[in-house]
Design a protein that fits this description.
Layout lengths: L10 E5 L2 E5 L4 E10 L5 E9 L6 E9 L5 H10 L6 H4 L2 H11 L17 E3 L3 E2 L3 E5 L6 H14 L2 E2 L2 E2 L4 E6 L4 H15 L21 E4 L8 H11 L1 E7 L1 H4 L7 H13 L8 E6 L3 H4 L11 H4 L3 E9 L5 E11 L8 E8 L2 E6 L6 H4 L4 H12 L4 H8 L3 H9 L4 E4 L2 E4 L7
Parallel strand pairs: 8-14, 8-15, 11-12, 11-13, 13-14
Antiparallel strand pairs: 1-2, 2-3, 3-4, 4-5, 6-7, 9-10, 15-16, 16-17, 17-18, 19-20
Helix pairs in contact: 4-5
Length: 429
């Protein structure tokens, strides 16, 4: 066997959770799906190619340890490659990758950083730059349609429901419907908003063929099984927002367990570049208790509440013979500041598609009942003037004890001659 030169010092490149080692001589080794066992042994899926060979692909993907000697891999390569001795090259590769893998994200001296820009709201009050947002609600109420409307506005940089979106390409990851159904929904939303759904050039990515419609992929299995592929596509297409529809199947059908939930959020971080992380909209269902009329929260592990930076509950009021549905989006958790007032939307179906308009939820009795008691009190006083506790109890169908606690514990309410007034405007404007 003819020997082709010795390999020089390699260069290691990290692509999300994929590690690529390159030599000037044309040898490329990819290590993907790295997994560390409880005994600290680490293995990976390895693929090896050599551009100087007539058939560049030499080996893999094969799963092998990177904490042990690659004797079997070296022996296989010596049998199929014109390079006479692979031992010299492959003794470097696992060491480089293992060091980088265990080093993780480097430590940053915050004091030495330039003051970063504030975290922007790319969809005001709903989606924040580089952060995960979770939206939960009962099944079948239209979460997917609403999320697609937000995604379309973000993708095109247009308005939705009175909110001006900041343009950035969107990838819709779908475990629940199909590309055909999503196409019709997306097309209807764009037509109703006056946006051309066909292709137009993207100066930053001239070969990507970006269109008015969001990028889409039908998904199977857990999201972490597709991390390497999604990482490449997010970079290639310039994706800024990822929509997950929905959380349960994306984490493997075990959202009530801590481990797959944490693994889901790790995967969501891994699909983007740490220097330019994407933001996400995650759709989730409600708990069994909520479906029975109990306390409402996202179904699954407590980490579905702890990990997202903002959480919203979507409620709907739909008439049986109407061509529209009214929605209230309640802000249930915030790590980006104070909770925002509820947002109202009206989704209307017409011949030209489906439109999303701003809605004053005070005009919908069902949605108003879903507001926190303090907000309902504020609306009642704003509309009726100063009111007694007894009058508020009758109007709002709320226990006097709960009302008294709310009124006395909130500095926005003041009692004047037994009548409650507000010190500032309350409710939904």
């Amino acid at each position: 066997m003819t020997t082709i030169g010795q390999l020089t010092v390699p260069v290691l490149e990290t692509l999300g959770t994929t590690y690529v080692v390159r030599w000037d001589e044309g040898v490329v080794i990819r290590l993907e799906r790295i997994y560390e066992h409880r005994d600290y042994q680490v293995d990976a899926e390895v693929t090896i190619s050599d551009e100087q060979e007539l058939s560049p692909h030499l080996l893999g993907p094969v799963r092998t340890s990177i904490t042990k000697t690659w004797r079997a891999v070296i022996a296989d390569l010596d049998n199929v490659s014109e390079r006479g001795d692979w031992r010299q090259g492959l003794t470097q590769d696992p060491v480089l990758v293992l060091e980088r893998y265990r080093a993780g994200v480097p430590i940053v001296a915050l004091g030495a950083m330039e003051k970063p820009a504030p975290i922007a709201e790319v969809l005001p009050g709903i989606v924040w730059e580089s952060l995960p947002t979770l939206v939960y609600g009962a099944g079948g109420i239209g979460k997917s349609q609403m999320a697609l409307a937000w995604a379309s506005a973000l993708h095109t940089g247009t308005q939705v429901g009175g909110l001006q979106a900041t343009q950035g390409n969107v990838l819709f990851l779908d475990w629940e419907t199909s590309d055909r159904m999503t196409w019709h929904r997306n097309n209807g939303l764009l037509k109703a908003s006056g946006v051309e759904p066909g292709p137009w050039p993207d100066p930053d990515y001239p070969d990507s063929g970006r269109t008015g419609m969001v990028w889409y992929r039908f998904m199977n299995g857990q999201i972490w099984d597709s991390v390497e592929f999604l990482k490449g596509e997010v970079a290639r297409l310039g994706i800024r927002t990822v929509v997950i529809d929905s959380a349960g199947p994306a984490c493997g059908g075990e959202p009530e367990s801590a481990a797959p939930t944490l693994k889901f959020f790790d995967a969501l971080r891994d699909i983007s570049d740490p220097t330019a992380p994407v933001q996400s909209i995650i759709l989730a269902h409600v708990t069994h208790e909520a479906r029975k009329g109990g306390h409402s929260s996202p179904f699954g592990s407590i980490y579905w509440i702890n990990s997202p930076r903002n959480i919203f509950e979507l409620a709907v009021s739909a008439g049986q013979r109407q061509n529209h549905s009214d929605y209230a989006l309640h802000h249930r958790k915030s790590n980006t500041g104070s909770l925002r007032p509820p947002l109202g939307f009206r989704l209307t179906w017409g011949e030209d598609g489906c439109s999303i308009d701003e809605l004053d939820i005070r005009k919908n009795a069902k949605l108003v009942t879903g507001l926190p008691l303090g907000e309902r009190v504020g609306i009642a006083i704003s509309e009726n003037g100063a009111m007694s506790t007894a009058d508020l109890s009758e109007l709002l169908d709320a226990p006097t004890r709960s009302l008294s606690a709310t009124l006395s514990g909130d500095e926005r309410f003041v009692s004047v001659n037994g009548q409650w007034e507000t010190t500032e405007p309350l409710g939904v404007e």
